[in-house]
Design a protein that fits this description.
Number of domains: 4
GO molecular function, one term: GTPase activity
Subunit structure: Component of the Dom34-Hbs1 complex, also named Pelota-HBS1L complex, composed of dom34 and hbs1.
Number of helices: 31
Number of strands: 22
Strand content: 15-25%
Bound molecules: guanosine-5'-triphosphate
Distance between the termini: 62 Å
Subcellular location: Cytoplasm
Main location: cytoplasm
Strand order of the largest sheet: 2-3-1-4-5-6
Shape: elongated
Organism: Penicillium angulare
Largest sheet: 6 strands, mixed
Amino acid sequence: MSRSRVKNVDFEDDDYYDDDGYESADPEEQEHLQRCTNEVLSQLRTGQPSLTVSKEEVQEALWHYYNDVEKSVNYLRGSHTLVGRKKKKFKNNRLRSKVCSAIINIPRCVGRFSLAGLENAIALERLLALDVIMALNSNLGFIKGVCLGVWENVLTGFLVPVYPVPLSPPSAHFSAADFFRDSPWLNVPSHRKADILVEPLYPRLGLLGGAPEASGKMSKLAALAAARKQKESGQATSNTPPASTSESQQPEKAKISLKDRLAASSKAAKPSEGLAGLQSIRRSAKPSPPAQKPSSPEPTKVVPTPAPVPKDQPEELVDDKEEPQQQIPEIRAQPSMFASAIIGSQTGPKMAEPSRLHSNHVDLLQIYGVDHAEPFDFSEPSPDDVVLKAQSTAKGFKSKTPASKAGGDKKGQAGLAGDMNNLSVEEKVTVKSKNLDVLAEYNKSKRKRSANFVVIGHVDAGKSTLMGRLLADQGAIDQRTLDKYRKEAEKIGKGSFALAWVLDQGSEERARGVTIDIATNKFETENTAFTIVDAPGHRDFVPNMIAGASQADFAVLVIDSSVGKFESGLKGQTKEHALLVRSMGVQKIVVAVNKMDTVQWDKGRFDEIEQQISSFLTTAGFQGKYISFVPCSGVLGDNISRRSEDSNASWYTGRTLIEELETSEPYTHALEKPLRMTIGDVFRGGVQNPISISGRLDSGSLQVGDQILTMPSGEKAVIRSVEVDDDSSDWAVAGQNVVLNLANIDPIHLRSGDVVCRSSSPIPTITTFTAKVLAFEHLMPMLVDIHRGRLHVPGRISKLVASLDKGSGAPIKKRPKIVAPGTVARVVIEMDTAVPLEAPTRIVLRTGGSTVAAGLLE
Ligand SMILES: Nc1nc2c(ncn2[C@@H]2O[C@H](COP(=O)(O)OP(=O)(O)OP(=O)(O)O)[C@@H](O)[C@H]2O)c(=O)[nH]1
């Protein structure tokens, strides 16, 4: 901002003042002032008594009264009549009232009224008394906002003019009472002014340091103040008749403390009367109406009812009994409706009906011992104990520890405490182990080989439909259920989703027509028991897809062959999913070119898709011999379990999808390695199996009765029973999908993503590790989410160690600043929390909703 601009700023207020601080009057105003002056002078001269006042005085008065002739005349009359009389006597009072009025009227006086007349320091001291404070308070907002300087000066005692204001009329002519006669709030009777000093009705109960009555211990200062009050009150009582004006009652109001009132009340009601007694205490403590009417010759007084004083009553309360009872006048405004509801009506006829909450207040008083209530004697059986005992006796039950005995002696109490310690929420279950040689059992078992495959692909490629068809064709789902799904789907206008509903069981999935979580389903062929892991295609649910892929032996990639959809799928999740499954260690992939009915089984289209996808998959690391393509239609069931009968599809003579799945080689699993199983799901079963976990055994074996360790919680559990592929079994080995029914563990220690192992060979929990990853996006030190199956935790790439040669894995460049997409690199990853991870484990790194890298924990 330039200087000239600052200079040019107009301060509007400056326009209203001359250099000397006075308002400049224009000729019209001067003329009007002259007319008013003449009018005032003539009225003063002609009126009774006749007064001669100087023109300057008149104009000064007119200036103050905004040229109001009548007010100026009154003022001048008053001031001139009073001059000479009482001047000296009331000097301080007038000064005081003047300042009060001035402060009250600060909003209208600013700029016009000078406080310079308050040169008297003694007067100032007095001014800082109650009524000044009241006056200040009443205009605090204004003072703060507009006249802060005045406020500060008043408080500090330096009453100097803050604004360039004209001096007030000479004190000899000035009467604040007249000047502010039109200020009705000045006519406050003195007896009402002190009402604000009435002490709170109830004690603060000592929580904040509180009143001496509440805390029971009086500070030295408080003791001195109390002594002084007592002295003053003694004088007041002796000098003042009991039924005097309200002003005479004023000191009493301030003097009567809660303790006095309660003490008085305690005489009016017996403590043994319980709540009713306490309520009557409050009623009797209620101040009676002031005896001001001449028709009531005797003032209403609290009549002390003799009450027995408990032995343990505090001394001061006993002393208080001897003090003469004071009438407590009504000193408060009527409580609001809200206040009445909360604390009960304190005044008026409603006082007789305290609210329910009011009784709570009484309880509080009881708690703090204000009402001398006897503490409950815990050596006696409680009323509940008595009732329970009576009930058990009536039912014919015999309590091992009678209530009276249990609570009666200390031994009983100690015994009870001991019993409580021995109480356990869950009883320990002992499960007998058959001590089987699990591997020998597995080798001699005639179970079909099992294979898990994950179904991946872009959203709406037809994955669920295809798998639904497969399940239906293989008899894994009966026709009746399928018809039911069809009807339900048609009802909501989604008939084409009937097959997909076989896998999409969630209501949200069905409503949205989108798979959200992985769904597992089983079907069997002659040789193999297959488990389908249907993964969601939508990019929002990629973490779930990763969880699905981590359980898979091979993958089925579904591609929508319809025009435009294939292309959009390629840009979408088709490639991402293929990359992810490869990163998760999947080697075999079956590509189902779906929805071929929409392109009339066009061979050209199929070839085009085959060519593009196979080149991509090869780049992603799949070997050609593990890639196969099947043209099919999930809706029609063509080339799924049976060959297509469509003449347009006759060009395809290859395997059906199910045949392709069957050709997959048996997968070897690390049966002899330590037990590892990632928990896929935790669920509460029935009464027999309250806590169950499901998942696939990554390595090792287990059997019923084994003790397992869950990590990272470090909690142990016992295997109650085992289910393999929905069949009950005594054992399970790596590669099998199992449900373990557990005992002796709280479900809070079990989460999906946790790892089951044994105490003898626990999985380590780590916070940092090195991984060899393939970058999908640019990598640098950055925040990432680490995914491993169901487990995903926040962390960061803390260091780029080296970029590596894809083939040999040898370092190409050490400590690169950035790793380009498609590069293999070794990175250090840190996590905020310790997680169960060990090498070799496949991990995926994601950030901002997209996969940035995947690789192997080294
Ligand atoms: N014409 C035709 N439509 C199909 C075929 N397969 C599936 N669809 C339709 O494609 C739509 C999507 O099918 P879904 O099975 O839900 O697709 P999805 O891949 O499981 O979808 P997400 O799991 O949400 O990724 C549905 O309307 C199906 O009826 C097919 O072979 N031919």
